[in-house]
Specification:
By secondary structure, the chain is an all-alpha fold. Helices cover about 75% and strands about 0% of the residues. The model has no long low-confidence stretch (mean pLDDT about 85).
């Protein structure tokens, strides 16, 4: 137990938590945008996966920032695909999302085999690049503040995105339109706002955020691509959206919570070797289920009071 506490209250563990949180945060913000518009994006998992492979392959031939943009573009493109089938062809958004996830799972394996010349499991043979860290030497001797140094550039962008999304949603008319379309679409439609257009762009933005999370995962958390490397993070992000009360700051807190438990699942196997590693790795998913149950109970209690 003391070994676990020592590991938890260490600089390394804090860095691990932020590293695990960053891709989850981007996916959660993407899920939040689409959810507020009334079009739940269950394809976050597939978007992250496609974006991860796109970023890795692009980084072989281009600078890291171009690879990140390519990953974001891949996620946004899948958002366009979802919008086309859901808004244009009137397909159920949940079924479309699962279709994207299935396509991404098999399609990335096929594309990986082409990119690597036959390897269907990993991109280890590709000389892909990584996202650089931002070091702050002037904070090295400062307690606590030195923890802010050495993180991915996308980690800083993720933190900034929380504030920018909050400002967009609650301080701009476009954010009001987005929330209005999700709450009661007849009202903004009567005011002349194009509901389908708002939902279209929300799905595109949702895919772009998920794409950035996939790029972070494949170019910083793990340098390279492996089959199904997202490992359910897109679905965890959906749980984080609900746990965060559909608010950007709540999404940040929820993503940090899930990042904490993911970091624990990384640290604990080395400290408790007698516990099966497979059992420890289920911790983030068990927390997701528990969070959804608590959210459902809380929502029912509020509904009963009203």
């Amino acid at each position: 137990m003391w070994d676990l506490l020592a590991a938890v209250f260490s600089v390394t563990f804090f860095v691990t938590v932020l590293r695990a949180t960053t891709p989850l945060l981007f996916a959660t913000l993407g899920g939040l945008i689409s959810d507020l518009s009334g079009a739940l994006n269950v394809a976050l998992e597939g978007m992250m996966l496609v974006a991860a492979l796109t970023a890795v392959v692009t980084s072989v031939y281009a600078p890291w920032y171009v690879a990140v943009v390519a990953g974001v573009g891949a996620g946004a493109f899948l958002g366009c695909v979802m919008a086309f089938f859901h808004l244009k062809l009137k397909a159920d958004v949940i079924l479309v999302g699962f279709g994207v996830n299935i396509l991404a799972s098999g399609g990335t394996v096929f594309a990986l085999s082409i990119a690597t010349g036959g390897d269907k499991g990993t991109s280890i043979n590709l000389p892909s690049k990584s996202i650089p860290t931002i070091d702050l030497p002037f904070l090295e001797g400062t307690p606590f503040l030195n923890l802010l140094s050495g993180h991915s550039a996308l980690t800083w962008i993720g933190g900034l995105s929380v504030f920018l999304l909050w400002y967009f949603l609650y301080r701009t008319p476009w954010g009001l339109w987005l929330r209005g379309v999700g709450e009661y679409p007849a009202a903004p439609e009567a005011a002349g706002i194009n509901v389908l257009k708002v939902r279209f762009w929300s799905l595109v933005a949702s895919g772009a955020f998920a794409g950035m999370g996939g790029a972070q995962l494949a170019m910083f958390n793990y340098v390279g691509f492996t089959r199904d490397m997202t490992a359910g993070r897109g679905f965890i992000a959906l749980g984080a959206v609900l746990l965060g009360a559909r608010h950007p700051v709540g999404a940040l807190i929820a993503a940090l919570l899930f990042g904490l438990f993911e970091a624990l699942s990384i640290v604990m196997p080395s400290l408790f070797s007698w516990i099966p590693s497979e059992l420890i790795q289920t911790i983030p998913f068990l927390v997701t289920i528990l969070a959804l149950v608590l959210f459902s109970v809380r929502a029912r209690q509020i509904a009963n009071k009203t």
